[in-house]
Amino acid sequence: MKRREFLILPARTLGGYLLASTLAGEPFLAQAQQAKAPDIKIPLKFFTAPEAAVVSAMTERIFPTDANGAGAREAGVVIFIDRQLAGPYGHDKYRYTKGPWVESIPEHGYQGQSNPRQIYREGIIQLGNFAALGAAEQDQALIAIEKTTFFQMVRTHTLEGMFCDPLHGGNADMVGWRLIGYPGPVMAYRHEIEKYRGVPYPKVEPQSLEQLLGRKVPAWEDEPV
Amino acid sequence: MERLKPVDVVVIGGGFTGLLMAKELATRTSVSVVVLERGPDRQLLDYMDDMDEVDFSLRFRMMQNISEETVTHRHTTANRAVPVREWGHVRLGTGTGGSGEHWTGVANRYPEDTFIIKSALKERFPASRIPADLSVQDWTLTWKDIEPFYTRVEEMMGIGGKAGNLQGRRIDGGNVFEGPRSKEYPVRPHLQSYAMTVFEKAARELGYHPYINPAATLPADYTNPDGISRPACQYCSYCMLYGCMIGAKAQPTNLLLPILKEKKTFTLRNGCWVRKIVHRDGRAEGVEYRDENGREIFQPASVVVQATFTSGNVRSLLLSKIGTPYDPATGRGTLGKNFTHQMSGGGNALLVYPTKLNAFMAAGGQGMAFSDFDGFNQLDPDANILRGGTFTGGGGGGHPIASFGTTPPGTSARNWGSAWKQAAIEHNDRTGGGPGFSAEHLSYRHNFLDLDPTYTDKWGDPLLRTTIDWTDHERRMRDFSAKISDRMAEEMARVSGAKIHHRPAATTGRRSGRYQTAAYATTHLHGGAIMGDTPADGVVNTYLQHWDVPNLFVIGASAFPHAGPTNPTMTALALTFRSADALIERYLKNPGKLV
Ligand SMILES: Cc1cc2nc3c(=O)[nH]c(=O)nc-3n(C[C@H](O)[C@H](O)[C@H](O)COP(=O)(O)OP(=O)(O)OC[C@H]3O[C@@H](n4cnc5c(N)ncnc54)[C@H](O)[C@@H]3O)c2cc1C
Ligand code: SF4
Q1: Which residues in chain A are contacts of B67 at CB distance < 8 A?
Q2: Active-site residue (options: B441, B501, B524, B562)
Q3: Domain-by-domain residue ranges, chain B?
Q4: What global pTM score does this model have?
Q5: What homologous superfamily does CATH list for B2-46+81-398+430-587?
Q6: Rounded CA gap, B148 and B3, in Å?
Q7: Which of A58, A119, B39, B218 gets the most CB atoms within 10 Å of its CB?
Q8: What's the ipTM?
Q9: Over the stretch B468-500, which tens digit does the pLDDT of each residue have?
């Protein structure tokens, strides 16, 4: 069996909500909490630990933690990406993958044969020791690959992991939604739509879908591939 | 192959048109009806779990599994077609209700002269102005014929709107350019958001006639003539690409299925993929399908109704070898002819409003429109176009991921990093554009459907190949729409105090002006099995009965000879009602050709 790989994060960077929602039922978690360990070991589903470090560093340059508030690190974006790549999306399970594969014009979009897992793996290799570089050097390295499918994919996934429902493992403790004042899924606005016409909606404590429904919601990435 | 007991009617496809046909048959006759639907069963409760942007808006969890079947595209017969590998320009539904579950609910009728397009163009323009390869034709029916059926669809769904032309009387606040309606809308129009009030004010200042767009997302509680009660919309914004968890959006599963489930004569079989219609000597004998376990089954039937959306309908006829495939070189044959895709356009302005829009409070179909440039209204001679279209705006529906990241030009060098993050947060939920534009797509000889010679579906059957491109005429329509939209944007900025930025067209996604499959346009495909007055002009007659095979009805927008300027479902369902009446009142009593 493949050796289990872990992402090691300082406990204080991630909200407790992330742990509760994405890792519930993992025995090591309870142990870590009991021991009040300074680091949390998060089991990876697709990346190796060094790969996760590169992707984590990339997402932190794309959506940095700065004076404007939380970034990819606090949101746990790399965990979101790891789960997406482990699931049907990463495997192109729902993409038409019959050949022949031919290059075509931009109007036809991505016609390549590589699935997201392969695009990440190859892209990460190209970045070498990226995780060890300083921020300015990392930015230079990213500017150099800005136009690639790989970079654009990571950028898209970073925003997804920042602002997704926490049931997907990103947006931990809803830090992304707080940043932009998104209240989360709400069923009823009928009596508010006119009241807040041209008036900003008050800052409310956001609610995730699982909080709203009071039960677990099956995420698509957990479907067996 | 297993052979089942014969049934009276088999309907292929359990989407909007198929289930409507089934409901008419099951409630008005005693014939047995079997609906074969290849996707899963769906019900109201499923839609509690779907308020999730990643799975439903971004990964298309409700959509048909494109790995099993897609379409291919090429611009002209000289090019090689490639498959649409992931959902891009269209998004097809699956499962009970089809695309009618996750649709948006924009519920316009077509304008009065859409149905007589060929005659109207001929009367209006000298022959020299009509492009040689145009293949438009009149629709076999007129406004007078279709109007009562529009009314029936509106009453069934509880469309919320305001009449602008009631029996010839023009009423301000409705669409004064619509064809004369026999009745007011059954439900009031939607509540207005801030963005809608800005749109309305600006349009009025410019002398246009704005109206709240008619919508199938109920603006008030409603009970329809079938006795189906549904509650008012809650503006939850998880609407387009989602099912409605309270049943406020008109969907087959809340309008039709509850009635059908009561009927002993009705059977819905999910997980059944129909591969072909079996026919001999001009008679359909039934259909061959694979059930969810992959078993091959033959279902004999006296009448076959083909209802698998435009693309599925045409492909099924091609695979079943029913009718004569269209040949663009000679113009002979009808099957696959006049393929169209609703035109869209708009401007390049970016508005930054002084206030947050709260775009997360919104309903599908909720928005404003004006039709002052529809059809031949105010055709600008300089624009050199044959038809105009409808301008729309003010709709919301902002989900946190997709709506994040719009920044005015010049605010940051890149679209990532700290400077961009700051600008994106500052502008979040505050930006918008000028109106969008939707317009008729006229039919051309060179836009058509046939079977792909290379790519196949999961059973090895050829995919549908789409050959289509925009012409200079559509590109001029787009330029015209940008001009009007940008002028509206200036006025919207003036009345709201918004800051306006003019972006180069190249940055707003309208770069090449060629047909593309990579980014979403609309799931409004039409034609390929068009209605015609004679077998030389169409695949089906005015009642959507196949010209060559009278016990086969091919229903849906595949019958449209060209694309009207607004969304197609009201028209597709009106034609389905009309077809159902003919089938029930005439065909079943006396099977044979209705024309
Ligand atoms: C995202 C989106 C938004 C839309 N918004 C609007 C709007 O605002 N206004 C508007 O007017 N229209 C809108 N539409 C279009 C509208 O949904 C369609 O016009 C309508 O659903 C068409 O009905 P139909 O019965 O032809 O096809 P569908 O409702 O798509 O039904 C076809 C059914 O056939 C089934 N099927 C296909 N092939 C087979 C097979 N081989 N065997 C068995 N079953 C099969 C499919 O699974 C599907 O359930 C929208 C569509 C989409 C996708
Ligand atoms: S916006 Fe209204 S109609 Fe649409 S899903 Fe929400 S409640 Fe239903």
Answers
A1: 92-97
A2: B524
A3: 2-46+81-398+430-587
A4: 0.96
A5: FAD/NAD(P)-binding domain (3.50.50.60)
A6: 41
A7: A58
A8: 0.95
A9: 999 999 999 999 999 999 999 999 999 999 999
